[in-house]
Design brief:
single chain; alpha+beta; Anaerobic Ribonucleotide-triphosphate Reductase Large Chain; two-stranded antiparallel ribbon; 33% helix
Length: 473
Amino acid sequence: MLGRLGILCSIYQSRRPEGYRLLPNSQRELSPYFCKAQHELVIANDNLFVYQDLIGFQEPSKAEKLRELLSSYRWTPNPERFTVTVQSLVADGVEAVYDCTVPGPNRFDANGLIVHNCGEIIGSDFHCNLSEVHLNQLDPQDFEDQDRAFRAGALSVASLLNHEFQEPRYRESRQLDPIVGVSFTGLFDFFVHALGVDWLRWWEEGRPETMRGLDFKEQEKQYLIRWRDVVHHTVWDYCDRQGVRRPNRCTTVQPAGTKSLLTNASPGWHPPKAQRFIRRITFGKNDPVALACLEYGYSIVPSQSDKDAQGNLLNDPFDTRCTEWLVEMPVEVPWANLPGADQIQIESFSALAQFDFYMQVQKYYTTHNTSSTIELREHEIEALGERIYNTIAQDEGYISSALLARFDDLQTFPRLPFEPISKERYDQMVQEVLQRRRTDDFHQALLKYDQGLLSEVGPAGCDSDKCMFPEVK
């Protein structure tokens, strides 16, 4: 990693062997602790100056010591010579790739990229490699751009069919049935831009099969089929050229709630919670990102788990009883300000309308499974049950969906992750954020709390937001 930044160094292993050493315990008394072997990283020559400029030490005293030493140099350090001569390239087989089992975060640095295992779709004898297209970033009228996006998603998963699993049962499963999944998110946003506010009004009516409704369904169908065909053609063409066995199914809609937040997309095929809402994100108390959010102007409240002795929610995030924070952010969907969009009551979309749209995706795009959660009220149970029964009886397609009760009283569950709000409250919250804002550079605010300018108490090796040591009596 240092080499990619232009800092050449050397590692000397086992400078101190493993063994027991006397270290202070929670009572500040010396006790024997087993310590792993210690290794040494050595940076020399003018690499030291590059290290100081680009990285430096988090501990202020160390940073000051480095500055003093470098400023006292009498002579210019030897310059690093970035030269290398390649004598030959010799094939050495295929590099083994292993599951990421790094404790704690379960991720690692892979040549500059943060990589980790995917847990979205996994079976007893296989792993599914997935990609995702964010439709809310695409122009509904630019079909070439859409094709390129789905081709890119298809190639990113198809290339992984060359991967050789270390586990024999995974290799056998791959040989029997290679599995890939090209997914999308932001479908609802895409269709709002493609079909307009009238499409939203049709949703509000329950997606009836009127002349206008059938036309909307046909347009949805054509988009979905086009994307599905692009994916299958791209994957199969790649497999034929590479001599890899073709997957017989290549499209899916994976759970997309978290990744959708990256581009403010409606998750998967689902409608958003509202045109405007409060997004509450959970952090540990005094988390650097949360502190940066506070400096950037966002409000913070204690989490739902922080209560007083009477069971009432705490209101002061800096209360000593508070252990977790909720950062509150006002959010609006990309099409919120389209003329007439404000009049649409998204929370009133019926369970039958949601099921109908889900089946459009399952029938015309998905060849694996569509991740689906249908929200319903008590009076909709019978109608939805009958619709599901008829779908199965008439063999209209594969069905797999979760059902979630919808509550209209937001006070039943205060401080929800998504709380719908009006345009007036959204505008007010945005203004309040701007008034509280102490910096326009979020990254600099984050560095202030995340690179040692503020010291924290506790063992450096903690991988939790809570100290595991017992409190001193």
